Task: inverse folding
């Protein structure tokens, strides 16, 4: 890791509680918890509420640990990007070594807790997710290839599979389909962000798709991945693991995603291009939320009615 732009001697020897919370990347953690909970609820079989809560807590802590390790290694990049330079490490509120220790301790706690509360298959998947995000994506892929988001997206796609495994102790086609939905969703989501944040990535030397291949190639890739996402998003309904409600929501959401991706492809200059990218980025979050909210509601209602 490159040296950050400030001396460690001047870094805080212990930040405020809110700084440690920020290290956990709470917005990312909330998405992880949400999709993991959907996987847990969608899994066949029953889990004791206390053990279910402990499993989701462990997955949340594991996601936070990944965030802390990511911020530790990326502190030099964060220091030069406008949207990240106020984070605890580049701003000097927490020393890098403290963030590293914090992330490692939380990682061990999360994996052991999930193993004892649920099963070791789920714990193994969580350990792999933390390793993949912190080492494979953050340390290797992020700085070496414009495909960083494509391959690294596997880490963000694993939580519903972990939640599912926490109940069943196995990996099945149903959980793989949930993984694929997030995995294919990730490139158009993040590349839309990269289109209007390209300057940040250029200053930080991160080889995101627009920086390396150009904006036109990025727009094409967004459109192609969205064309793939539309049927993949519907696949849980097409394979029978989800019902009509999910099929309708995923179909409508897929059509809107395609329309917005087409708008990104067509609008290539000026403010209109930025607006199109921002619209796709914003709706992509709503799209994923709607899919997994439908899963939660449908399976939650099914459990309440004994269906």
Result:
């Amino acid at each position: 890791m490159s040296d950050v732009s400030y001396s460690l001697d001047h870094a805080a020897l212990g930040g405020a509680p809110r700084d440690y919370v920020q290290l956990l990347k709470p917005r990312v953690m909330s998405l992880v918890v949400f999709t993991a909970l959907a996987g847990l609820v969608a899994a066949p079989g029953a889990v004791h509420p206390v053990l279910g809560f402990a499993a989701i807590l462990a997955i949340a802590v594991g996601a936070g640990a990944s965030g802390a390790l990511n911020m530790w290694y990326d502190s030099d990049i964060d220091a030069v990007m406008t949207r990240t330079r106020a984070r605890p490490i580049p701003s000097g509120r927490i020393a890098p070594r403290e963030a590293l220790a914090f992330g490692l301790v939380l990682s061990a706690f999360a994996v052991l807790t999930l193993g004892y509360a649920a099963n070791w298959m789920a714990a193994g998947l969580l350990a792999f997710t933390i390793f993949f995000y912190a080492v494979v994506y953050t340390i290797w892929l992020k700085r070496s290839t414009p495909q960083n988001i494509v391959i690294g997206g596997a880490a963000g796609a694993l939580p519903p599979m972990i939640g599912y495994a926490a109940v069943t102790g196995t990996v099945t086609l149903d959980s793989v389909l949930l993984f694929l939905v997030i995995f294919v969703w990730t490139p158009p989501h993040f590349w839309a962000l990269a289109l209007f944040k390209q300057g940040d990535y250029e200053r930080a030397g991160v080889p995101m798709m627009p920086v390396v291949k150009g904006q036109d190639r990025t727009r094409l890739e967004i459109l192609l991945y969205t064309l793939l996402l539309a049927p993949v998003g519907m696949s849980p309904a097409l394979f029978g693991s989800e019902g009509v409600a999910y099929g309708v929501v995923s179909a409508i959401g897929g059509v809107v995603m395609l329309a917005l991706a087409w708008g990104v492809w067509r609008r290539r200059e000026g403010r209109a291009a930025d607006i199109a990218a921002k619209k796709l980025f914003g709706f992509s979050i709503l799209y994923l939320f709607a899919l997994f909210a439908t899963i939660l509601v449908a399976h939650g209602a099914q459990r309440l009615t004994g269906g």
Residues 1-13 have pLDDT under 50 and may be disordered. Residues 141 and 148 are 5 Å apart (CA to CA).
